[in-house]
Amino acid sequence: MELDRHDRHLLRLVQDDIGASAEQLAAQVPLSPSSIQRRLRRMREAGVIEREVAVVDPAALGRPTFFIVSLQVERERPELLNQLRRWLAAQEHIQQAFYVTGESDFVLVVAAPDTESYDALMGRLVSENPNVSRFTTNVALSVVKRGLSIPIPPHPAD
């Protein structure tokens, strides 16, 4: 899908606040509210906007602990990697999972209510995925920045 400068501007704005009304967005993008609604609908239908989510304050839920996990697998056979990917995607405490280059094969961001829950998750990971050879864990002491915004380059004509 070709994105013009207005689409790109809209994407920057809705990444910061998807709850902004079409009228509020129209105050910042030189388009009518109905045009903004059509553009957003088109971007949703095309898959440019994958999902709309709420960002929840961790303190409101008892301050979960964040763990950064590096996983190594024994074999990188496609069927084994796909099985592990499906398992990781199905776990509610795993916020993000990346297949990476370097010493590790996967890097995970895990938000668990406590270390016991994290330990149980990792126990299940190892027992249900025999291809996982080892993992290392870093515990986040504080959150400096948290987000999922994607930098949007300017339109080539700009």
UniProtKB/TrEMBL annotation:
The keyword Magnesium does not apply. InterPro entries: ArsR-like_HTH, AsnC-type_HTH_dom, Dimeric_a/b-barrel, Tscrpt_reg_AsnC-like, Tscrpt_reg_AsnC/Lrp_C, WH-like_DNA-bd_sf, WH_DNA-bd_sf. The keyword NADP does not apply. CDD domains: HTH_ARSR (cd00090). Keywords: DNA-binding, Transcription, Transcription regulation. Residues 3-64 form the HTH asnC-type domain. This is Lrp/AsnC family transcriptional regulator. It comes from Pseudoxanthomonas putridarboris.
